[in-house]
Amino acid sequence: MKSENINALDEIHKGTCMGMDALHFVLDKVEDDKLKNVLEEEYNQYEEIAKRIEEVYPKYNDDKPHETNAMTKAMTWYGIEMKTLTDKSNSKIAELLLQGVNMGIIEGRKILNKKKIDKEVNDIISTYVTMQEKSVEVLKQYL
Question: Which residues contact 77 (CB under 8 A, 6 or more apart)?
Answer without folding.
Answer: 21, 25
